[in-house]
Design goal:
The chain is mostly helical and 134 residues long. The chain is 52% helix and 9% strand.
Length: 134
């Protein structure tokens, strides 16, 4: 079984509209009840996978833009979501010259289980600052 299943769905009417726009490419597209049946089958598949302990991300694509969908899919992983938040926060700190926020940022990073960032935020930060060349 997979660790994560990502299932895309949409309202049956929207699916039918997309099929009409793209053209019929599969025999299922010939059946006017196909979009409704597709939604039901994916909902059943999600329920089955959840009953087997699989984490399921069911994404409604009725109104979602592709870029938003990609980000939502990637950020479904808690570690990636935390990493994204920390990196964005660090970038803001740098670009807006908010160095006074560094101690709070380091503490926030230490709270999450992100070994790759822990190398930037050791448990006991150095107390001295580097000296500048004369």
């Amino acid at each position: 079984m997979p660790d994560l299943a990502v299932i895309l769905t949409a309202e049956p009417g929207r699916i039918a509209t997309r099929i009409a726009e793209r053209g019929i490419t599969h025999r299922w597209h010939l059946d006017p009840t196909g979009p409704s049946r597709e939604v039901d089958l994916y909902r059943d598949a999600a329920a089955y996978l959840r009953s087997r302990g699989v984490q399921v991300l069911l994404l409604d694509r009725t109104l979602t833009e592709p870029e938003q969908l990609q980000l939502k899919t990637v950020r479904a992983c808690p570690e990636i979501d935390a990493l994204t938040r920390h990196v964005r926060s660090f970038a803001t700190m740098l670009t807006e010259r908010q160095g006074e926020r560094l101690p709070d940022w380091l503490n926030a990073v230490r709270q999450d289980d992100l070994p790759s960032l822990h190398t930037l935020a050791p448990a006991s930060p150095a107390t001295s600052t580097p000296s500048s060349p004369d």
